[in-house]
Structure to design on (825 residues):
């Protein structure tokens, strides 16, 4: 007992400097920071951020420090000559070091919890760290202890320990099978998943580290380390991390064809059925008028033909004052495009509708315009919609105008009816969400009461929020996650969707690209464009949305700085357009 | 001379392999996985090379000899110290250049002409090589008298950070003034960061000439340091 007490005293005597420095960094500095925050405010500290970021480093430093001090040179020989077993001596060292690590990192968290109000905004959640991180620190400490016991050289052991720490920190983030060890998973206090796997793995790592250390002390194992070992170990760890990250989101969509557009063309919209289609684009022309720089926008439309391995574009036809977002194109009549336009009345705030018909089929495009100044009203530009069902064209505004399409190139007005399609009471939008935050459980789309078309057609035409539903599935991306909804109820006046699953990208996926908001869905696949801020390039990620939660199945990186338009084709291929370039990508390998 | 070269080759070849393997693996994995556009990935590889290779090469030549205690023996040999310094410099240049050449060759073989033309890839790697060599001469010269590899590495990283800060300052000044400064010609990063902005203000041949002059000046100064040390010992 006396021997044990002596060993404990010795270890405490030697480690107390680490404890003092650790408490100063993790508790003293946040206390000073809290005092600097200003008088008059409630005194609060933010120790959890430092503990979260640097806790693992402290564990590694202490793990190496307590070992190499004694297991090195003549001091080691002295201790081996004492009447105490090396395992017992090392075990005491291990326990005291571990206790120091846990104490130095836990005390600041406990102080923070006691001082700060429960409603305070803490950068990192102290109770969650206190609950799970001691296991992680114990694992780091034990592995560093083992590495130091084997190498017996402080600098080398510290560098190797940091390499191992990087692997434990980041490999779970990039490798989905061990994602349960990821800190983002552990720190999610709203997560309902069990962390039993994390607990078991951390205990196993700690026990392994201790067992290796004791075996090394008993058998006098040591590894001769030199610069080569250290360089190769750290280089290898970094390569493992990079390759794991890279192959997690590796491009697997084949590039079938690439077509160059004029360099300044920005693609606005592509509509295609997989064979024919149209492509809308615009470009800017800078011109000097009265010695002032003016930017003039030119709008173009082209016919599109998609082959097995190619995309052919027809000649560009310039169209003026054309609202492509209010246009209708049908695969059965690929040469005809309809568009609704609001024409302003001079010296008035009111406007009236105009229906434009473009026929691209006769070599040179022809444009037919039908104006209805007698319907002048103030609200035409806003909610005007246009859609085609069989041989009828509907133009929705303050009134619903129905056209007969017996002659496709010359729509004939059949009727003008009053049209009331207003948001429900208390709502500002026709898309009603519950709860009213970003992660909706239920979404209800109010459908336009157009006579003569089915609720399903109404739903497909009520494109309030991109993308349109793909069958019964509606997929939305918001911030950095993708959520799927299934159609629960469809009536004449509304469609109700319920949430079925959500995909949260890993840190690596976020690093290589954030969601850009450009998306499209077809055939159970959801395509989302991403933008890489650091690289100034873009990408597209394909999700399979037929299962209980969105599942990424494809990825492609583009040299373009921004993807402007995505158009999925029925066979799983994708037309994607950036500035001055159009790509045809193959379907993802797994659907 | 041949014996000196053989000695340096024998001691430093693992660093050559390390640099080449890390850069080539990084390029190959990135280009194969295509997580970002090819030009972005290639720029990352070149930036990694400019950060890693000069430190790796400069610290392992003379400071490592000192910390191992072999420098006095080396200087006691019946060989002109200038020749020893020249051989070490040549090996340093090889340590900086060969990994970039290997990475460039791997990149061209894996993705040449796919998104970036072969000429574009070669151009990028040549410019990265210019940055790497320029930084190497700064680090090699300013660490020539340091007693240990660790201390030399700290000084080398300090030099790297100093030039990065200067370059960041020049970028910020360019953003504010909309006119690139002639000081761009002095920073080693002119060949990568400032290239697209300042090539019309500081023509590329002039930049090369300025950096060759600076590198030679640093080299002669460092050589003088070593020879005077050798004379002091004798």
């Amino acid at each position: 007992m006396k021997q044990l007490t002596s060993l404990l005293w010795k270890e405490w005597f030697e480690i107390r400097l680490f404890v003092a420095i650790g408490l100063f960094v993790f508790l003293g500095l946040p206390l000073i920071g809290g005092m600097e925050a200003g008088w008059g405010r409630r005194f609060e500290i933010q120790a959890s951020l430092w503990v979260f970021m640097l806790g693992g480093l402290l564990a590694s430093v202490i793990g190496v420090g307590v070992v190499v001090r004694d297991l090195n040179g003549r001091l080691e020989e002295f201790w081996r000559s004492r009447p105490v077993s090396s395992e017992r001596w090392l075990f005491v060292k291990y326990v005291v070091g571990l206790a120091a690590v846990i104490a130095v990192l836990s005390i600041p968290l406990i102080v923070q919890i006691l001082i700060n109000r429960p409603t305070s905004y803490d950068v990192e959640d102290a109770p969650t760290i206190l609950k799970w991180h001691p296991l992680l620190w114990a694992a780091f400490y034990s592995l560093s202890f083992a590495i130091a016991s084997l190498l017996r050289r402080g600098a080398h052991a510290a560098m190797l320990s940091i390499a191992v720490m990087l692997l434990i920190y980041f490999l779970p983030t990039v490798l989905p099978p061990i994602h349960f060890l990821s800190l983002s998973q552990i720190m999610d206090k709203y997560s309902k998943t069990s962390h039993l796997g994390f607990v078991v793995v951390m205990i196993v790592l700690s026990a392994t580290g201790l067992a290796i250390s004791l075996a090394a002390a008993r058998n006098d194992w040591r590894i001769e380390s030199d610069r080569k070992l250290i360089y190769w170990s750290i280089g290898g760890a970094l390569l493992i991390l990079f390759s794991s990250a890279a192959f997690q989101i590796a491009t697997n969509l084949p590039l079938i064809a690439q077509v160059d557009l004029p360099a300044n063309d920005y693609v606005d919209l592509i509509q295609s059925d997989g064979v024919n289609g149209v492509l809308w684009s615009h470009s800017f022309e800078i011109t000097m008028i009265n010695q002032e720089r003016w930017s003039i926008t030119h709008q173009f439309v082209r016919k599109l033909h998609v082959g097995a391995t190619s995309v052919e574009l027809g000649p560009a036809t310039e169209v003026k004052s054309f609202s492509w977002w209010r246009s209708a194109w049908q695969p059965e009549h690929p040469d005809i495009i309809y568009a609704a336009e609001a024409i302003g009345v001079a010296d008035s705030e009111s406007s009236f509708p105009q229906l434009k018909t473009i026929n691209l089929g006769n070599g040179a495009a022809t444009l037919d315009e039908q104006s209805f100044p007698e319907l002048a009203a103030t609200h035409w530009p806003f909610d005007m919609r246009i859609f085609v069902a069989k041989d009828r064209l509907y133009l929705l505004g303050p009134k619903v105008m129905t056209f007969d399409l017996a002659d496709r190139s010359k729509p004939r007005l059949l009727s003008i009816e009053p049209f009331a399609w207003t948001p429900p009471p208390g709502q500002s939008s026709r898309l009603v969400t519950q709860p009213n935050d970003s992660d909706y459980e239920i979404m209800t789309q109010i459908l336009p009461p157009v006579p003569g078309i089915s609720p399903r057609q109404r739903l497909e035409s009520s494109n309030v929020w991109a993308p349109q539903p793909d069958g019964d599935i509606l997929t939305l991306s918001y911030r950095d996650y993708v959520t799927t909804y299934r159609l629960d109820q469809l009536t004449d006046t509304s469609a109700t969707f319920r949430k079925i699953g959500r995909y949260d990208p890993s840190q690596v996926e976020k690093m290589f690209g954030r969601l850009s908001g450009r998306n499209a869905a077809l055939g159970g696949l959801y395509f989302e464009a991403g933008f890489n801020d650091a690289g100034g390039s873009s990408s597209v990620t394909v999700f399979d949305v037929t299962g209980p939660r969105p599942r990424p199945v494809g990825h492609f990186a583009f040299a373009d700085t921004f993807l402007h338009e995505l158009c999925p084709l029925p066979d799983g291929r994708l037309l994607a357009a950036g500035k001055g370039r159009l790509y045809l990508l193959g379907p993802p390998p797994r659907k | 001379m041949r014996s000196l070269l053989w000695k340096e080759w024998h001691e430093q070849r693992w660093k050559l392999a390390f640099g080449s393997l890390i850069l080539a693996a990084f390029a190959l994995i990135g280009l194969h996985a295509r997580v970002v556009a090819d030009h972005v990935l290639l720029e990352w590889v070149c930036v990694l090379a400019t950060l890693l290779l000069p430190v790796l090469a400069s610290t392992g030549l003379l400071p490592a000899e000192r910390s191992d205690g072999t420098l006095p023996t080396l200087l006691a040999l019946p060989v002109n110290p200038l020749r020893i310094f020249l051989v070490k410099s040549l090996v340093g240049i090889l340590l900086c250049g060969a990994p970039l050449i290997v990475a460039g060759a791997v990149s061209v073989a894996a993705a040449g002409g796919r998104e970036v033309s072969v000429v574009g890839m070669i151009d990028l790697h040549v410019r990265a090589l210019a940055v790497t060599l320029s930084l190497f001469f700064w680090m090699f010269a300013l660490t020539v008298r340091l007693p240990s590899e660790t201390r030399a590495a700290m000084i080398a990283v300090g030099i790297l950070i100093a030039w990065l800060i200067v370059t960041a300052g020049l970028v910020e000044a360019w953003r504010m003034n909309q006119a690139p400064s002639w000081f761009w010609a002095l920073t080693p990063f002119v060949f990568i960061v400032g290239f697209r902005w300042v090539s019309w203000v500081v023509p590329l041949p002039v930049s090369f000439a300025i950096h060759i002059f600076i590198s030679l000046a640093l080299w002669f100064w460092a050589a003088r340091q070593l020879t005077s040390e050798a004379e002091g010992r004798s």
